[in-house]
């Protein structure tokens, strides 16, 4: 139906199906290297994101290791510290 309440005669477009087909997260290519070493990130030397800072701060507090949080870390180093703190929590 059109915005005036009349049928337009055009078939509906399934936006969901076309969006899923174009979304690599919906059906990832298993041969794609999805996990990259942070040292190889193109943007790894940029300041860490707000989400990284928040998560790292939380993990460092939970681990009773406040020195693990450094607000001046870059994205790559923050990712490595997050991974390290997550590994420590599992043990």
Main traits of this protein?
elongated, 91 residues, 0% strand, mainly alpha
- Approximate strand percentage: under 5%
Query: How many DSSP-defined strands?
Result: 0
Helix content: 40-55%
Radius of gyration, whole Å:
22 Å
Mean pLDDT reading: 78
Q: What can be said about the biggest beta sheet?
A: none
Number of helices: 3
Global shape: elongated
Strand pairing plus helix content: what structural class? mainly alpha
Order of helices and strands: HHH
Query: Which consecutive residue ranges, at least 5 long each, have pLDDT under 50?
Result: none
Note the gap between the termini.
59 Å
Write the layout of secondary structure elements.
Elements: H1 15-22, H2 50-62, H3 75-90
Helix pairs in contact: 2-3
Structure description:
- The chain has 91 residues and is mainly alpha-helical.
- 41% of the residues lie in helices and 0% in strands.
- It has three helices and no strands.
- The protein has helices at residues 15-22, 50-62, 75-90.
- It is elongated, with a radius of gyration of 22 Å.
Summarize the structure.
It contains three helices and no strands.
């Amino acid at each position: 139906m059109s915005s005036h309440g009349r049928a337009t005669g055009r078939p509906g477009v399934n936006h969901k199906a076309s969006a899923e087909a174009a979304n690599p997260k919906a059906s990832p290519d298993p041969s794609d290297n999805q996990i990259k070493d942070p040292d190889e990130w193109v943007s790894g030397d940029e300041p860490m994101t707000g989400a990284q800072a928040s998560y790292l701060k939380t993990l460092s507090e939970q681990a009773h290791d406040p020195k693990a949080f450094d607000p001046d870390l870059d994205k790559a180093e923050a990712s490595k510290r997050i991974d390290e703190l997550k590994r420590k929590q599992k043990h």
